[in-house]
Write a structure and sequence with these properties.
The chain is mainly α and about 270 residues long. The protein has 2 domains: about 1-75; about 90-265, Cd81 Antigen, Extracellular Domain, Chain: A (Orthogonal Bundle). Helix content is about 70%, strand content about 0%. It is built from 8 helices and 2 strands. It has helices at about 1-35, 45-75, 80-105, 110-125, 130-145, 190-200, 205-210, 220-265, and strands spanning about 180, 200. Strands 1-2 form a two-stranded antiparallel ribbon. Helix 1 (about 1-35) runs antiparallel to helix 2 (about 45-75), helix 1 packs antiparallel against helix 8 (about 220-265) and helix 2 runs antiparallel to helix 3 (about 80-105). Its main location: membrane.
Protein backbone atom coordinates (compact mmCIF):
# COMPACT_ATOMS: atom_id res chain seq x y z
CA UNK A 1 0.00 0.00 0.00
CA UNK A 2 2.78 2.39 0.95
CA UNK A 3 4.67 1.68 -2.25
CA UNK A 4 1.58 2.36 -4.40
CA UNK A 5 0.87 5.64 -2.62
CA UNK A 6 4.49 6.70 -3.04
CA UNK A 7 4.42 5.81 -6.74
CA UNK A 8 1.23 7.81 -7.30
CA UNK A 9 2.75 10.78 -5.48
CA UNK A 10 5.80 10.65 -7.76
CA UNK A 11 3.57 10.46 -10.85
CA UNK A 12 1.47 13.42 -9.69
CA UNK A 13 4.62 15.49 -9.05
CA UNK A 14 5.97 14.52 -12.48
CA UNK A 15 2.71 15.46 -14.26
CA UNK A 16 2.47 18.74 -12.40
CA UNK A 17 6.05 19.58 -13.33
CA UNK A 18 4.97 19.21 -16.95
CA UNK A 19 1.88 21.37 -16.27
CA UNK A 20 4.13 24.00 -14.71
CA UNK A 21 6.40 24.07 -17.75
CA UNK A 22 3.43 24.28 -20.15
CA UNK A 23 1.82 27.05 -18.09
CA UNK A 24 5.04 29.05 -17.96
CA UNK A 25 5.56 28.53 -21.71
CA UNK A 26 2.06 29.85 -22.46
CA UNK A 27 2.48 32.79 -20.08
CA UNK A 28 5.91 33.78 -21.45
CA UNK A 29 4.79 33.34 -25.07
CA UNK A 30 1.72 35.48 -24.42
CA UNK A 31 3.85 38.16 -22.78
CA UNK A 32 6.14 38.21 -25.85
CA UNK A 33 3.13 38.64 -28.16
CA UNK A 34 1.86 41.47 -25.95
CA UNK A 35 5.25 43.19 -26.18
CA UNK A 36 5.83 42.58 -29.91
CA UNK A 37 2.65 41.77 -31.88
CA UNK A 38 4.31 42.29 -35.29
CA UNK A 39 3.58 38.84 -36.68
CA UNK A 40 0.27 38.01 -35.04
CA UNK A 41 -1.55 41.26 -35.85
CA UNK A 42 -1.17 40.45 -39.53
CA UNK A 43 -3.69 37.63 -39.04
CA UNK A 44 -6.37 39.68 -37.26
CA UNK A 45 -8.09 42.92 -38.18
CA UNK A 46 -9.64 43.67 -34.79
CA UNK A 47 -6.81 44.37 -32.36
CA UNK A 48 -9.28 44.45 -29.45
CA UNK A 49 -10.22 40.81 -30.07
CA UNK A 50 -6.55 40.02 -30.52
CA UNK A 51 -5.65 41.34 -27.09
CA UNK A 52 -8.72 39.71 -25.53
CA UNK A 53 -7.52 36.38 -26.96
CA UNK A 54 -4.03 36.97 -25.56
CA UNK A 55 -5.52 37.80 -22.16
CA UNK A 56 -7.46 34.52 -22.17
CA UNK A 57 -4.28 32.60 -23.04
CA UNK A 58 -2.41 34.38 -20.24
CA UNK A 59 -5.15 33.42 -17.75
CA UNK A 60 -4.97 29.78 -18.92
CA UNK A 61 -1.19 29.77 -18.45
CA UNK A 62 -1.49 31.21 -14.94
CA UNK A 63 -4.22 28.71 -14.03
CA UNK A 64 -1.95 25.85 -15.15
CA UNK A 65 0.82 27.23 -12.93
CA UNK A 66 -1.60 27.40 -9.96
CA UNK A 67 -2.86 23.88 -10.72
CA UNK A 68 0.71 22.57 -10.77
CA UNK A 69 1.46 24.24 -7.43
CA UNK A 70 -1.69 22.80 -5.82
CA UNK A 71 -0.97 19.33 -7.17
CA UNK A 72 2.61 19.24 -5.94
CA UNK A 73 1.72 20.62 -2.51
CA UNK A 74 -1.23 18.25 -2.17
CA UNK A 75 0.93 15.25 -3.05
CA UNK A 76 3.83 16.20 -0.77
CA UNK A 77 1.64 17.08 2.22
CA UNK A 78 -0.93 14.35 1.49
CA UNK A 79 -3.64 17.00 1.87
CA UNK A 80 -7.10 15.96 0.73
CA UNK A 81 -8.20 19.60 0.63
CA UNK A 82 -5.39 20.62 -1.73
CA UNK A 83 -5.91 17.54 -3.90
CA UNK A 84 -9.65 18.21 -4.23
CA UNK A 85 -8.93 21.85 -5.13
CA UNK A 86 -6.35 20.64 -7.65
CA UNK A 87 -8.92 18.23 -9.13
CA UNK A 88 -11.56 20.97 -9.51
CA UNK A 89 -9.18 23.47 -11.14
CA UNK A 90 -7.76 20.84 -13.48
CA UNK A 91 -11.25 19.62 -14.42
CA UNK A 92 -12.23 23.17 -15.39
CA UNK A 93 -9.10 23.45 -17.55
CA UNK A 94 -9.78 20.10 -19.28
CA UNK A 95 -13.42 20.94 -20.01
CA UNK A 96 -12.41 24.38 -21.36
CA UNK A 97 -9.74 22.87 -23.62
CA UNK A 98 -12.10 20.24 -25.00
CA UNK A 99 -14.79 22.89 -25.61
CA UNK A 100 -12.29 25.17 -27.35
CA UNK A 101 -11.06 22.31 -29.54
CA UNK A 102 -14.61 21.33 -30.48
CA UNK A 103 -15.46 24.95 -31.33
CA UNK A 104 -12.34 25.33 -33.50
CA UNK A 105 -13.07 22.07 -35.36
CA UNK A 106 -16.72 23.03 -35.92
CA UNK A 107 -15.78 26.51 -37.17
CA UNK A 108 -12.66 25.65 -39.19
CA UNK A 109 -14.35 26.78 -42.44
CA UNK A 110 -15.25 30.13 -40.87
CA UNK A 111 -11.66 30.52 -39.65
CA UNK A 112 -10.44 29.95 -43.23
CA UNK A 113 -12.83 32.66 -44.45
CA UNK A 114 -11.53 35.05 -41.78
CA UNK A 115 -7.95 34.40 -42.91
CA UNK A 116 -8.90 35.02 -46.55
CA UNK A 117 -10.63 38.32 -45.74
CA UNK A 118 -7.80 39.44 -43.49
CA UNK A 119 -5.02 38.72 -46.01
CA UNK A 120 -6.90 40.56 -48.78
CA UNK A 121 -7.61 43.50 -46.47
CA UNK A 122 -3.95 43.63 -45.42
CA UNK A 123 -2.77 43.79 -49.04
CA UNK A 124 -5.33 46.35 -50.19
CA UNK A 125 -5.66 48.62 -47.18
CA UNK A 126 -2.93 48.15 -44.58
CA UNK A 127 0.36 47.38 -46.30
CA UNK A 128 2.67 50.44 -46.18
CA UNK A 129 0.12 52.16 -43.89
CA UNK A 130 0.78 50.22 -40.66
CA UNK A 131 4.49 49.41 -40.12
CA UNK A 132 3.88 46.31 -37.98
CA UNK A 133 1.54 44.74 -40.54
CA UNK A 134 3.85 45.73 -43.38
CA UNK A 135 6.78 44.00 -41.71
CA UNK A 136 4.64 40.96 -40.88
CA UNK A 137 3.34 40.54 -44.43
CA UNK A 138 6.84 41.00 -45.84
CA UNK A 139 7.86 38.10 -43.64
CA UNK A 140 4.94 35.99 -44.91
CA UNK A 141 5.83 36.68 -48.56
CA UNK A 142 9.50 35.83 -48.05
CA UNK A 143 8.79 32.72 -46.00
CA UNK A 144 6.09 31.29 -48.30
CA UNK A 145 7.69 32.62 -51.52
CA UNK A 146 4.51 34.31 -52.69
CA UNK A 147 3.26 37.74 -53.73
CA UNK A 148 -0.03 39.44 -52.86
CA UNK A 149 -3.19 37.70 -51.69
CA UNK A 150 -4.08 35.82 -54.88
CA UNK A 151 -1.14 37.02 -57.00
CA UNK A 152 0.98 40.08 -57.88
CA UNK A 153 -2.04 41.78 -59.54
CA UNK A 154 -3.52 42.46 -56.09
CA UNK A 155 -0.96 45.22 -55.55
CA UNK A 156 -2.42 47.24 -58.46
CA UNK A 157 -5.50 48.00 -56.33
CA UNK A 158 -3.67 48.64 -53.07
CA UNK A 159 -2.77 51.68 -51.04
CA UNK A 160 0.83 50.65 -51.58
CA UNK A 161 0.29 52.02 -55.10
CA UNK A 162 -1.69 55.03 -53.81
CA UNK A 163 -5.09 53.60 -54.78
CA UNK A 164 -7.88 54.72 -52.45
CA UNK A 165 -10.72 52.24 -51.92
CA UNK A 166 -13.44 54.35 -50.33
CA UNK A 167 -16.05 52.04 -51.81
CA UNK A 168 -15.39 48.58 -53.26
CA UNK A 169 -18.08 49.10 -55.95
CA UNK A 170 -16.51 52.41 -56.92
CA UNK A 171 -13.16 50.80 -57.77
CA UNK A 172 -12.84 50.51 -61.56
CA UNK A 173 -9.99 49.72 -63.91
CA UNK A 174 -9.67 53.41 -64.73
CA UNK A 175 -8.61 54.14 -61.17
CA UNK A 176 -5.82 51.60 -61.20
CA UNK A 177 -2.26 52.60 -62.00
CA UNK A 178 -1.35 51.43 -65.54
CA UNK A 179 2.06 50.59 -64.11
CA UNK A 180 2.32 49.53 -60.49
CA UNK A 181 4.98 48.22 -58.14
CA UNK A 182 5.11 45.20 -55.93
CA UNK A 183 7.04 45.12 -52.62
CA UNK A 184 10.65 44.01 -52.50
CA UNK A 185 9.55 40.95 -50.53
CA UNK A 186 7.87 39.70 -53.75
CA UNK A 187 11.27 39.29 -55.39
CA UNK A 188 12.52 35.75 -55.83
CA UNK A 189 16.09 36.97 -56.32
CA UNK A 190 18.53 38.36 -53.78
CA UNK A 191 20.04 40.71 -56.37
CA UNK A 192 18.49 44.08 -55.54
CA UNK A 193 19.34 45.56 -58.94
CA UNK A 194 17.41 42.79 -60.69
CA UNK A 195 14.64 43.04 -58.12
CA UNK A 196 14.18 46.78 -58.59
CA UNK A 197 14.13 46.36 -62.38
CA UNK A 198 11.30 43.81 -62.36
CA UNK A 199 9.21 45.25 -59.52
CA UNK A 200 7.31 47.61 -61.84
CA UNK A 201 4.53 45.69 -63.54
CA UNK A 202 1.92 46.67 -66.12
CA UNK A 203 -1.68 45.59 -65.48
CA UNK A 204 -2.26 44.09 -68.90
CA UNK A 205 1.03 42.24 -69.15
CA UNK A 206 1.02 41.00 -65.55
CA UNK A 207 -2.35 39.30 -66.02
CA UNK A 208 -0.92 36.98 -68.65
CA UNK A 209 2.66 36.65 -67.44
CA UNK A 210 4.69 37.57 -64.38
CA UNK A 211 8.33 38.47 -65.14
CA UNK A 212 11.15 36.30 -63.86
CA UNK A 213 12.36 37.44 -60.47
CA UNK A 214 8.84 37.92 -59.02
CA UNK A 215 6.86 35.25 -57.17
CA UNK A 216 3.84 34.41 -59.33
CA UNK A 217 1.71 32.63 -56.71
CA UNK A 218 -0.47 34.40 -54.16
CA UNK A 219 0.00 34.00 -50.40
CA UNK A 220 -3.60 33.24 -49.52
CA UNK A 221 -3.79 29.57 -50.48
CA UNK A 222 -0.19 28.95 -49.42
CA UNK A 223 -0.91 30.41 -45.98
CA UNK A 224 -4.06 28.31 -45.52
CA UNK A 225 -2.24 25.18 -46.73
CA UNK A 226 0.64 25.86 -44.32
CA UNK A 227 -1.75 26.32 -41.40
CA UNK A 228 -3.58 23.11 -42.34
CA UNK A 229 -0.28 21.25 -42.68
CA UNK A 230 0.96 22.24 -39.24
CA UNK A 231 -2.44 22.01 -37.52
CA UNK A 232 -1.92 18.25 -37.09
CA UNK A 233 1.06 19.00 -34.83
CA UNK A 234 -0.99 21.43 -32.73
CA UNK A 235 -3.76 18.83 -32.46
CA UNK A 236 -1.26 16.15 -31.41
CA UNK A 237 0.31 18.41 -28.76
CA UNK A 238 -3.09 19.57 -27.49
CA UNK A 239 -4.40 15.99 -27.36
CA UNK A 240 -1.30 14.84 -25.48
CA UNK A 241 -1.74 17.61 -22.91
CA UNK A 242 -5.41 16.68 -22.38
CA UNK A 243 -4.47 12.98 -21.92
CA UNK A 244 -1.84 13.94 -19.32
CA UNK A 245 -4.39 16.13 -17.56
CA UNK A 246 -6.87 13.22 -17.47
CA UNK A 247 -4.18 11.07 -15.87
CA UNK A 248 -3.64 13.88 -13.37
CA UNK A 249 -7.36 13.81 -12.50
CA UNK A 250 -7.31 10.04 -12.04
CA UNK A 251 -4.11 9.99 -9.96
CA UNK A 252 -5.36 12.80 -7.70
CA UNK A 253 -8.59 10.89 -6.97
CA UNK A 254 -6.71 7.65 -6.30
CA UNK A 255 -4.26 9.42 -3.97
CA UNK A 256 -7.07 11.23 -2.21
CA UNK A 257 -8.89 7.93 -1.57
CA UNK A 258 -5.66 6.29 -0.40
CA UNK A 259 -5.01 9.14 2.05
CA UNK A 260 -8.55 8.88 3.39
CA UNK A 261 -8.22 5.11 3.86
CA UNK A 262 -4.88 5.63 5.57
CA UNK A 263 -6.42 8.17 7.95
CA UNK A 264 -9.34 5.84 8.71
CA UNK A 265 -6.95 2.97 9.45
CA UNK A 266 -4.92 5.25 11.72
CA UNK A 267 -8.01 6.37 13.64
CA UNK A 268 -9.27 2.83 14.03
Amino acid sequence: MGFCVGLIKVLIVFLNTLFLLVGLLIAVGTAVLFADPTYAVSVVQDTNNYYIGLSILLVIGLILVIVAFLGCCGAFKESQCLLVTFFIFLLVVVVSEIAAGAWAFHNKDKLSDVIRQTVKHTVQEEYSVYPTRTAAFDGVQKMLKCCGAEGPNDWAASRFNNVERSNALDLTISRLNPVYKVPQSCCSTDDMNVCNNVRSLGIVTSITAVPNGIYSKGCLEKLIDTISEYSIYFIAVGGSIVVLELFGLIFSLVLCCAIRRKDDDYKS
